[in-house]
Write a structure and sequence with these properties.
Blueprint lengths: L4 E6 L5 H11 L2 E7 L3 H10 L4 E3 L12 E4 L6 H9 L3 E5 L6 H13 L4 E4 L6 H11 L6 E9 L9 H17 L5 E7 L9 E8 L3 E8 L6 E8 L2 E6 L7 E6 L7 E4 L8 H15 L3 H4 L2 H11 L1
Parallel strand pairs: 1-2, 1-4, 2-3, 4-5, 5-6, 7-10
Antiparallel strand pairs: 7-11, 8-9, 9-10, 11-12, 12-13, 13-14
Helix pairs in contact: 1-7, 3-4, 4-9, 5-6, 6-9
The protein binds nicotinamide-adenine-dinucleotide.
Amino acid sequence: MKMKFKLAIIGYGYWGPKLARNFLNSSKFDISFIVDKHKKNLIKAKNDFPLAKIIDNYKNIDLDYIDLVVVSSPTSTHYEIAKFFLKNTNVLVEKPLAINISQVVELEKISRKFRNNLFVDYPFIFSGSINYIKKIIQQKRLGKLLEIESYREQAPVRKDANVIWDLCVHDISILKYLLNDDPSKINSIKYNTSNGKNEDTAYVHLQYRNQLNVFIKNSWLSPVKIRTIKFKFTNGFIICDENESIYKVQIYRKTKKNSLNYKMELPEIDLTEPLLNLVNYISKSIKNRSNKIFKKKFNIEISKILQKI
Ligand SMILES: NC(=O)c1ccc[n+]([C@@H]2O[C@H](COP(=O)([O-])OP(=O)(O)OC[C@H]3O[C@@H](n4cnc5c(N)ncnc54)[C@H](O)[C@@H]3O)[C@@H](O)[C@H]2O)c1
C-alpha cells in the first residue's frame, strides 16, 4: 500500500475545512490532527473526520508522526504557530504569511536553517486561468503587455489585518508569479469606510519596467463579489473572471493592427480547483525535498511590496 503523508490542520473555521477537503481528495495525505479553539468547530471536525485526533491546543500535536502542519487560524496567529513547528516539520500557512516583513524574514530563515519547506496558500497562482495567462504573456501571443487592472471586492472583514495584507496579497502574489518582477514605483490610497478597526478599501498603482502600469482596487465591502483582472496588450485584451464557473478567461483579439474591433475567444482552461493543485504541488515538494515556487524569496518579495503599500 502507498504511504500517505500525515497532516495536522490548525484552525477549522471558514477556510480550514476547504483545505481539509482538498487534502482528503488528493489521496496523498491522511488528516491525523485537527486543532481549533472553539467547541463548535471541534464538533464539526469530529463529524467530518471521525478518525482524526481532534484537540484544542496545537502544542499537543505529536510531531513524530507529522509531515505537514497547515495553519489556517487567524492571520495574527500565523507567525507564532509557524515558528513553533518549522524547526520540526514542513508548514503550509494561509495567506498572508504574517503581518509584517520582519516576521516573514524570520520564518524564511528558520525554514532554510532546518530544511523544512514553508508553503503559503496563494490560491490563484495555482489556478488554471492564471497559468493560462502566464503562457500568453511569456509567449507574447497578444503582443506587449501594457496595463493590468484588478478588482477584488467583497470578503470577510478582518480584525487583525488591513485590506492590503488580506486581499491585495492575492494581487501581489499573482503579479509576482506572472511578471517575475517587482514594481519600481508604488502609490496607494487606503481608507476606512466602515468605522472598523482597519482600512477596508484601497486603490493601488504600481509601475513596472517597460511602462507597464498596474491598477488595483481592493475592498471588503461591496454588495457583489468581484474577482476580475483585465490585461491590456498591444494586440488585444484578456479578461479573467474567477467568479465565472467555466469561461474564466476571455480573449479579445484585434481583428487588424490598430483596429478597434475584436474577435472574442473562450479558451479551454484547466478547471481543477486551485487548492487541489496546491496540495499536489506540496506532496511533490515534500517527496522530492524541493520547493520551486517558494524558494527564491517569493514570500519575502511579496511581503516587501505589501509593506511598502
Ligand atoms: N487563501 C485564501 O483565499 C483564503 C481565504 C479565506 C481565508 N484565508 C486565510 O485563512 C485564515 C483563516 O481565515 P478564516 O476565514 O478561516 O477565519 P475563521 O475565523 O473562520 O477561522 C479561524 C479558526 O481558527 C481558530 N483559532 C483561532 N486561534 C487558534 C489557535 N491559537 N489554535 C487553533 N485554532 C485557532 C478559530 O477558532 C477559528 O475556528 C486567515 O489568515 C485568512 O486570511 C485565506
